[in-house]
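Q: For a teaching session next week I want to show students how multiple molecules come together into a single three-dimensional assembly. I've collected the sequence lines for a complex. Could you give me the predicted C-alpha cells for the whole thing so I can convert them for display?
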Amino acid sequence: MAETATARRSRLTPERAAELYTAVLDLLREVGYDALTMDAVAARTHSSKATLYRQWGGKAELVAHAMRHMKPGSIADVDTGSLRGDLAALVTREDDCAMEQNTALMRGLAMAVHNNPDLLRAFKELLIEPELEEFRRVLRRAVDRGEVREDNPAMEFVVHMLLGAFVTRTLIDELPPTQSFLLSYIDAVVLPALGVPTTT
Amino acid sequence: MAETATARRSRLTPERAAELYTAVLDLLREVGYDALTMDAVAARTHSSKATLYRQWGGKAELVAHAMRHMKPGSIADVDTGSLRGDLAALVTREDDCAMEQNTALMRGLAMAVHNNPDLLRAFKELLIEPELEEFRRVLRRAVDRGEVREDNPAMEFVVHMLLGAFVTRTLIDELPPTQSFLLSYIDAVVLPALGVPTTT
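A: Of course. Below is the structure for the complete assembly, covering every listed component.
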C-alpha cells in the first residue's frame, strides 16, 4: 500500500520538523529561493538529503510547508460573533514586526513563483487554498448571522479587496501593512462594500 | 546651458521614437528585462547605442518610456460627468486582448523591478505617478459634483481596491482581468465603498 504524505511526515517529531522549517526560512532570507539548495538545508539541519526528499518530496513543498508553519495559528477556532471581529482577527494574526519580516520573505517568494511552477503549485495547495477556505467560512457565518446578504455582489471580491491593501501598501505606498492600516481599510472599504454598517 | 530631457528626446521624430518603443517591447516579450541589452535594441532598430543612451539615459528609462507609450491615450481628456463613467473609462482603455498581453508583460517587469531599483524609479516617475494623478483628478471631480463626500475614508484607498482586482484576478483566480470583470468590480466594490449608489 502506498504511504500517504502524512504517514511519511509523521516519522519526524513536531519539534524536529519545527527546527527544520526554521532553518529553511533562515536560509530563504539569506540566499533566496533560487539559490536555496537541499544540500544547504541538509547541512544546516544535520539531516540527510534522502530524509528531506522522503519527508517533503522536494524543495518547493519543503518551502511551502515551512511558510505555512510560520503562519501564527489558524483562525478556524476564532469566532468573534461579528464579521468585523473575524476579519480583524484574520488580518492581525501577525504583529507589525512579524508582518514586516514576512512581507519581505513573501515578496521574494512571489518573484520565485514566477519561474517555478512547482513552487506555485505547492503554495496554492498549502497556503492559498486553506486561506481562501478561512475567508469562505468567515463570510458564511456572516451570512448565517444575517450581517451580509448572500447575494451581495462584493461577497466574491473580499480577497481581491484585502490583497489589494497588502500589495498597494507595500509596492506603491512603500509602507508596511501595519495592523492599524489593515483595520482602517476593513472599516473604510471591506465592510461598506459588503453593506455592513461600521460603528464609527 | 544643460539640455533638458525633452530637448534631448525631441531630436527623434515621434514616428522614429514609436518604432524604437515597439522594438523594445518586442524584445522584452522575447527575452525579458534582465536579458534585454542596449546592444540588442541598437541592432534591432539600426541605431547606435550612443543615440539610445543620449536620448533615454539608460535601459530602465527606455523601457519605462516604451511601456508608457503603449498605454492607450490618457484619460485626462475624458470627463463623462459621473464617477462610474470616469472609472469605467479609466479601466477599459485597453481592450481584453491588449490587456491580456500587457498583463503578461507587466508581470515580468514587476519581477524585474524587485532586483533593479533604477527600473522601479523610472516606473514610479513615468508610469505610476501619472496614473495616480489621473485617479486624484477623477476623484476630485466626483467630490466637486457632490457624488462623493470629501471625508469618505475610502477615498484614499481607490488604488488599493483596483490594484487588488488586477492582482488577485491574475494571480489567484488565474483569469484575465477582462473589461466586464473590472466593471463588475467597480459596481460591487469601489462605488459602494465610496458611498455612490449604483444604478443596478
